[in-house]
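I hope you will forgive my troubling you with a question about protein structure. Could you please explain, in whatever detail you think fit, how the structure tokens follow from the sequence? Thank you for your consideration; the sequence and its tokens are set out here.
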Amino acid sequence: MNPFTRFFAALLIAAPVATAGADQPDTSALFDHELRRLHSPEIVNLRERLAGQPLLVINTASHCGYTGQFGGLEELHQRYRDAGLKVVGFPSNDFNQESDDEAVTARVCFENFGVSFDMFAPVGVRGEDAHPIFRELARQSEAPRWNFHKYVVDRDGRVVGHFPSRVGPNSRDLQRAIESVL
């Protein structure tokens, strides 16, 4: 590949995918759920916790080449939480890189990376076994192609941008999308 082609290919890889024109969000699919926190008996009502808030939703895995993104995601959480952003992580084994033991997953998130944002018990994120939250996110944009796919959701439940795994938390495009919903 020549340098010119390589440059434009890199731009396409890092660019957020536009989601304009998506139908109205199905907020019941996004929020009418009670989910258990990761490695905890605590149940969270998502409508009470997240509805009406700007969101950064990520499917995660504790044994993935992108697992180091937890640190940057925590930095985003710390930077934007006072402005109302809710960062929400959903471990998934859809790509065979999540531990079967929630204690291991919790240790990776909370101890190794100091995650303080909401992490929930593992869910499916693709296909027929996808949790309704991820079915709605996919309907508005696309299903995750790998771990650490990021969705920026506005206060009305609309996906305003989604970013593949290789777009890290320090990406200016991701941060601009977050700032647009605050």
Observations:
- The radius of gyration is 16 Å.
- The longest strand covers residues 55-60.
- The chain has seven helices and seven strands.
